[in-house]
TrEMBL record:
This is Phage tail tip lysozyme. Gene3D superfamilies: 1.10.530.10. It comes from the Bacteria. Residues 68-187 are annotated as: Disordered. Residues 193-328 form the Phage tail lysozyme domain. Residues 173-187 have a biased composition (Polar residues). Residues 80-93, 118-135, 142-154, 161-171 have a biased composition (Low complexity). InterPro entries: Phage_lysozyme2.
């Protein structure tokens, strides 16, 4: 709007009051005037001073419209919305604050509305990127190992501690439960001797030299720690002759007579073969804890392996032909 749009209107409020008093309807649009609130001349209307004040306010608003329209280069007639209060002190009747409105981008497109809801997935689970790497090695066809389990190796399980002779790989007292069918080599005999030494130290509280003295006697009697040896050198099951003489001894200590029968009974009772290493040590331990406990007492009274060898020979073996030097030679093999 320009100032030309309101040309012909007076800015003097008295002119409009004069027009009213003469019956004009320039601003009322009706012959009833503006005295009464209900449009009639009832005597309860506005006085002259109130009318002048209203007209002045209307003129001030009109002047503000003209000033704004004259200063608007864009050609628009209305003042911008949200421009604040006018120079006359009157507030904009419809103030609004658009400072929080989202900006329009250079292409004229408003940014998308923010949403607190997650994007729709059409029911499909989200794709994660934390999958374990593929293992391209070995016999599990590339799949990673499950959980924290240890990878299986090809090593056989350890032998059972109390197996029977039906399982050749089982042990008892750290010794084989399998029947002996062939003579041991010297190195094999030394391995068995070392296990005997450890067992005797653990089971009877002996020192290592004391235990070695006992085993030196067993080495001589058995021809190198052969548990399935018959007197004369045959390896295998015991003969059926249980005579207590120098021709029918059997086992690691060359038991004869009732003691030979005792070995066979012990083996049967424990599900062992009498020629096995486990049956021979088990029966030896049983004797040293019971009927032959005096031999342990004698060995415990010694301080050297040589003395222990002699003590055990005299109290346990009681040979008719001692061959003591040979026993000492065998002691050297055990100590090597």
């Amino acid at each position: 709007m320009s100032s030309a749009a309101v040309q012909g209107y007076s800015t003097n409020p008295m002119d409009y009051l004069h027009s009213y008093s003469s019956g004009s309807s320039d601003i009322t649009g009706g012959s009833d005037g503006i005295y009464g609130l209900n449009g009639n001349n009832s005597g309860n209307g506005l006085n002259q001073q109130q009318i002048l004040q209203i007209i002045e306010e209307l003129l001030q608003m009109l002047q503000q419209v003209l000033q704004n329209s004259d200063g608007d280069d864009s050609g628009g007639g209305a003042p911008p919305v949200g421009s604040g209060s006018s120079s006359g002190g009157n507030s904009n009747p419809f103030p609004q604050d658009y400072s929080s409105a989202p900006p329009v981008d250079s292409g004229g497109n408003a940014p998308p509305l923010a949403s607190s809801q997650p994007p729709a997935t059409n029911g499909a689970p989200p794709v994660t990127t934390n999958a374990p790497p593929v293992n391209n090695g070995g016999g599990n066809n590339g799949a990673p190992p499950a959980g924290n389990s240890t990878q299986t190796t090809n090593n056989p399980p350890p032998p059972a501690s109390n197996g029977s002779s039906s399982n050749p790989g089982s042990t008892m007292f750290g010794l084989s439960t399998a029947p002996q069918t062939t003579a041991l080599s010297q190195s094999q005999g030394q391995q068995v001797a070392n296990q005997y030494v450890n067992n005797l130290m653990s089971d009877f509280g002996l020192t290592k030299p004391q235990a070695q003295g006992i085993v030196a006697n067993l080495w001589l009697e058995s021809g190198g720690m052969n548990s399935g040896i018959n007197q004369g050198g045959q390896i295998g099951a015991p003969t059926g002759n249980n005579a207590d003489d120098n021709a029918n001894g059997y086992g690691i200590a060359q038991w004869g007579g009732p003691r030979k029968q005792g070995l066979e009974a012990y083996a049967k009772q424990n599900g062992l073969d009498p020629s096995s290493e486990a049956a021979n040590y088990g029966y030896l331990k049983q004797e040293l804890q019971t009927t032959q406990s005096g031999a342990i007492s004698a060995v415990k009274g010694t301080s050297t392996a040589q003395d222990a060898t002699a003590a055990f020979m005299n109290t346990f073996e009681k040979p008719s032909d001692p061959h003591f030097q040979s026993r000492l030679d065998d002691l050297a093999l055990i100590q090597a």
